[in-house]
Amino acid sequence: MSRPQPPKPAKPIVGFFLKERSLAADIAGMLQARLGPVDMISPWLDFDFTSYYEKEMGAPLFRRLMVFKPLIEQTRLAAIKRMTNELETTLQRGGQRRVNIDPGYLLPERFVLATGKNFTHRIYIGEGIYADLTLIYRKGAFRTLPWTYPDYADRRLIDFLTLVRNKYMIDLKKELARKPDALPGSASPDAGGEFS
């Protein structure tokens, strides 16, 4: 019989895309006030996999990911998504969004995003929010799934998330060493089973 154990703390990651790159500093400040210091930032990437958002936000659009130092409990994801929804509203101009913010988290075995839209593979996590399993880590690399958003399937973004995972594994070991009772009976964070 399996015994319930506390889950590993997760590495918070917030992706966003926008037209006006000059907004990035304001967005970073707002997010840091709520999630703590930034640990890593991706390069700017063109967000050109769809034209869906151009009518509302204009074009061209650019994507960036921000990674935050403090690890979080996985159960915070819904509240974080609601917070980023509020930030989107705060930054609106003339009732139009200027930025789309996608919070999520990374674990040794997967990368998860939060969304307000239900779908077959998404799991409800409360507060009107669903968890989207976006990438899995298997056989030493992140792997896409049939429903992975095209921009998150981009090799450059996956390479960045791999660097984030490497840093997270170090942070996780330190966290577990600092709080050895945080995960009673848990395996080493390197022990990913079939996901290693």
Q: Could you explain how this protein is built, in words?
A:
- It comes from Desulfosarcina ovata subsp. sediminis.
- There is one protein chain.
- Residues 184-196 have low confidence and may be disordered.
- This protein starts with 10 loop residues before the first strand and ends in an 18-residue tail after the last helix.
- Strands 1, 2, 3, 4, 5, 6, 7, 8 and 9 form a 9-stranded antiparallel sheet that branches.
- The chain has 196 residues and is of the alpha+beta class.
- β5 and β6 form a beta hairpin.
- It has 4 helices and 9 strands, in the order βαββαβαβββββα.
- The protein has one domain (11-178).
- The radius of gyration is 17 Å and the shape is globular.
Give a summary of the structure in a few sentences.
InterPro entries: DUF4416 (IPR025529). The protein is an alpha+beta fold and 196 residues long. The protein contains 4 helices and 9 strands.
Beta-strand percent range: 25-35%
Mean pLDDT figure: 91
- Largest β sheet strand count, sense and barrel closure: 9 strands, antiparallel
Task: Count all strands and give the number.
Answer: 9
Task: Give the quaternary arrangement of the chains.
Answer: single chain
